[in-house]
């Protein structure tokens, strides 16, 4: 049977290894700088990167509740934000983030 990650509607795995986090969700320096250019708030920058990396990996934008905490924490740490910084994956700017990723 084909795993759910390889279907037409890919999802996050239940358990994501450190290797997969680095391989699929680590933003490059250019991507991190790009996120800073587009988003003002600290919590919006990792959210934009999550949208970008998820779209690159899965070909779609996941709903906010789909993001595993491990992925959110990994991206937050990758852009050197404190753990107390909330990552705004949903809300009013979600549509803007999707437009930015598509452009």
Structure description:
- This protein is mostly helical and 103 residues long.
- The protein contains 5 helices and no strands.
- The longest helix is centred in the middle third of the chain and has 15 residues, at 44-58.
- The chain is globular and about 40 Å long.
Helix content: 40-55%
Average of pLDDT: 88
Indicate the low-confidence ranges by residue numbers.
none
Number of helical runs? Answer: 5
Number of strands: 0
SSE string, helix = H, strand = E?
HHHHH
Instruction: Please report which band the strand proportion falls in: under 5%, 5-15%, 15-25%, 25-35%, 35-45% or over 45%.
Output: under 5%
Give the terminus-to-terminus CA distance.
36 Å
Biggest sheet details: none
Structural class, judged by helices and strands? mainly alpha
Assembly state: single chain
Radius of gyration: 13 Å
Overall spatial form: globular
